[in-house]
TrEMBL record:
SUPFAM superfamilies: YjgF-like. Pfam families: Ribonuc_L-PSP. Coiled coil: none annotated. Signal peptide: none annotated. It comes from Pseudoxanthomonas broegbernensis. This is Enamine deaminase RidA, house cleaning of reactive enamine intermediates, YjgF/YER057c/UK114 family.
């Protein structure tokens, strides 16, 4: 059985199957903020979606981070490091990418156990 959350015409924000939560790429609501602020917004959205699935950030199996500008790596890491739980840091990849909206600085995709 597949359970979908926040289903829209183009995509769902979250799908759960066989004890695994798959999140869509999360982007900031307020793109006027700097990289740390945008990253914090995205991480808050991830927390909320994981809670809907009955999971949390300590159960993240992997994270994929897309940065519009690699120069923002340190600022993103500052927000990330304050968010992750010591001893529960997930495998992670970070790449520079052209994001769907030019004002977005970061998009994060996670997969987590439920």
């Amino acid at each position: 059985m597949i359970q979908r959350f926040e289903v829209g015409p183009r995509m769902s924000e979250l799908a759960v199957h066989d004890g695994v939560a798959y999140l869509a790429g999360q982007v900031p609501e307020d793109a006027s903020q700097d990289i740390a602020g945008q990253t914090r917004q995205v991480l808050e959205a991830i927390d909320a979606l994981l809670a809907q699935a009955g999971s949390d950030k300590t159960k993240i199996l992997r994270a994929q981070i897309f940065l519009a500008d690699a120069a923002d790596f340190a600022g993103m890491n500052q927000a990330w490091d304050a968010w992750v739980v010591p001893g529960h840091t997930p495998p992670r990849a970070t790449v520079q990418a052209v994001l769907a909206k030019p004002e977005w600085k970061v998009e994060i995709v996670v997969t987590a156990a439920v």
